Amino acid sequence: MRIVLITGISGSGKSVALNVLEDTGYYCVDNLPPALLSSLVQTLQDEGTEALAVSVDARSAESLATLPGDVKQLRTAGHDVKVMFLTANTHSLVARFSETRRSHPLSHEMRPGQNPASRRTLIECITEERERLSAIEQLGHVIDTSEMSANKLRTWIKDLVAIERAPLTLFFESFAFKVGVPLDADFVFDVRALPNPYYDLALRPLTGRDAPVIAFLDAQPSAAELLKDIRDFIEKWLPSFKTDNRSYLTVALGCTGGQHRSVYMAERLAAYFHPTERVVLRHREQS
């Protein structure tokens, strides 16, 4: 059975991800206690279900500790299990709860000795949730949705689910430092030292995927040198990550605006590794 397990911070887009999977034919269950996961899988398998998506959140605090073992057991039994951990920075989460006027799931929990009239603030709820989920954050692929639209998240979820089971998937992601470093990055490379096409008025409206910008950066010796350094680093350490049974490795390339240099570098790296590795390419600041 194909199983997608969605977890992460409330407000980071878990409902969006679950809806995407439901639209693509997955049997979806929201807020399932991890203790019930194995029995649910067995029941649905007996009924002939081929694809299952389950959302797990911090309200299942008491059984979260069993989740890594449950995932390992399901994989050992032959199921194709993907785990997605969605997160976002606190500023973005506060803005989203304010926009939707919804309360945080943990705001309804009563702490020992707490006055019923005194509940956790939103910031306290987010902090508590991060602590509860910290042990399972690296269980799967971390997706930072801080500066991501719902439409872009839908696209990324579809791309991730479409990936066939493989020893490791390389994600190359371009981003803008002025917006913030992606929380899901395993490695971050700063390419702002390269000449900036932005200062050429003819190149400014273009991106690192356009031929004139590519030609401009191809002509820079520093771009070729930096590209080789990053490529050599990844090639050197990639076998170690595969040996460590990592499923995903995210390499983030950042420049000032996330339009030219970082896009160029991400495209070049993805093209280089594509013939030998499973590669996914994404540009955070572009629709």
Automatic annotation (TrEMBL):
InterPro entries membership: P-loop_NTPase (IPR027417), RapZ-like (IPR005337), RapZ-like_N (IPR053930), RapZ_C (IPR053931)
Binding-site positions, GTP: D57, A58, R59, S60
Domain of life: Bacteria
GO molecular function ontology, one term from the record: ATP binding
Occurrences of domain RapZ-like N-terminal (ranges): 1-160
Keyword Cytoplasm listed: no
Binding site for ATP: G8, I9, S10, G11, S12, G13, K14, S15
Pfam families documented for this protein: PapZ_C (PF22740), RapZ-like_N (PF03668)
Record key words, sorted: ATP-binding, GTP-binding, Nucleotide-binding
Domain RapZ C-terminal: 169-286
NCBIfam families associated with the record: PRK05416.1
Stated name of the protein: RNase adapter RapZ
Lineage: Bacteria, Pseudomonadati, Pseudomonadota, Betaproteobacteria, Burkholderiales
